[in-house]
Amino acid sequence: MHGDWRAELLGGGQVTKFPSFGDVPGKSNAASGIAMMQKRVFKRYVGPLLALSAACALAGCASYHKAPLQLSADLPTSPLKLHRRLPDGRTIPVTPPLPARDIAALAVLNDPDLIAARAQAGVAQAELLNAGLLPDPSINAGFAALISGPADVPAISGGLTQDLSALITYSVNRQAAKAGLAQVNAGILWQEWQVATQAEQLCITLDSDARLIATLRADRTQLERVNQATASQVRAGNLTLTAQSASMAALAATDTLLNSTLQTRDTDRDQLDALLGLQPGVELATRLPQVAPVDPARARQAVATLARRRPDLIALRYGYAQADAKLRAAILTQFLPISLGGTAGRDTTRVVSAGPQLTLNLPLFNRNRGNIAIARATRKQLAAQFAASLDSAASGANALILRIGVLESQAATASQQARAARAIAAQARHAFAQGALDALGAVNLETAASDREREAITLHAQLLAARLSLNALLGIGLPPIAEPDRNRNS
CA angle, corner 283, sides to 278 and 285, nearest 5? Predict the structure, then answer.
């Protein structure tokens, strides 16, 4: 019949046998025709539909791309080659001398360790994505060829199953992943804060090194003049070799100290270059940071709120929140896995059946007790770690407050003594030039003045570094950070 789909599927009315299995004893021509019809239906409609479904599924799959490692170091030799664009779009100028705050910003942008730490945030973000994904459903199919017997068709079966475990633990797993991401972000912020502080402290140290080197070079110039004048007096017979040996010894001691200070300066410079990701040996002209004194009362008030402001402590709190969520997930998992689905099939006698399928784990023996115990112990360990870190942070800040008070007194005294010693040394130089003071006395007074000057420089640098460290320990200047308890249900 023209247009009859049955005739079209049956090959224009021509009945053929099912070629896959040959003739089956007892089969009628009608049965063979039905088998052939099934094959053609599969070939024309079902096959292409399955192929299209598979293609659509594969289109959304991830693919692999090579990412080879760079096997050679590529450190810039100039700050102009550093990454200098801030998140707000501004570009950090590198016109010397660089302010300490700009050095700190460059260090945060270019420190290799910080770059590696930020990559960890990508891992935590991926874990959060993974925690929000549901497992894919499982599909199964079976085919049993008819070999012998009174039946006339092969058996087929199929089923669709969905794992419900992820739905049960979805909320706690998401909370754990969110806490983990927040912990990583808070930890990175603390590392950035420390790197910025270290960069500013190195600016203070390099300024101190430069001042010490300047005083030592000035001392060397002055002692060399004294030594030359003493040598002339010795040749003239006006002084003994004892006076010349004293001036030579003072000059040698100054040279030794100058060389040591130059080496220290080079080490400090290389540390700053490493923070900035520069080649060792790159010279940077820097300016001292503006560090205002911290009021002790304000500092003690800040100590009382450290747990709500300092990123490392907030990171530990997020870590505890993550451990708590993982404990709840472990308790829920004792009843898992749970899967629900449906199956359908047709046997060789053409009987079709279908129905639901449920798989449930019975918590009789294991009950996930091992993982629950591990989760409880981890939460307890993190609570102890947080308490210890909080005590250490408060103790360190309080100790630094006391140390700053001592340094302020010592620095003020050293500055007064240095001014007095400089005045005495100037008088001694004048007296030595007039012949009213011998070389040994002049050398001793010059050395004493230089020692007082260097002591004042060192104490002033220590005071600035201590104030900077206190600001860092107290988190003064940091932006507010969301606390775990406020985001627990977000």
Answer: 115
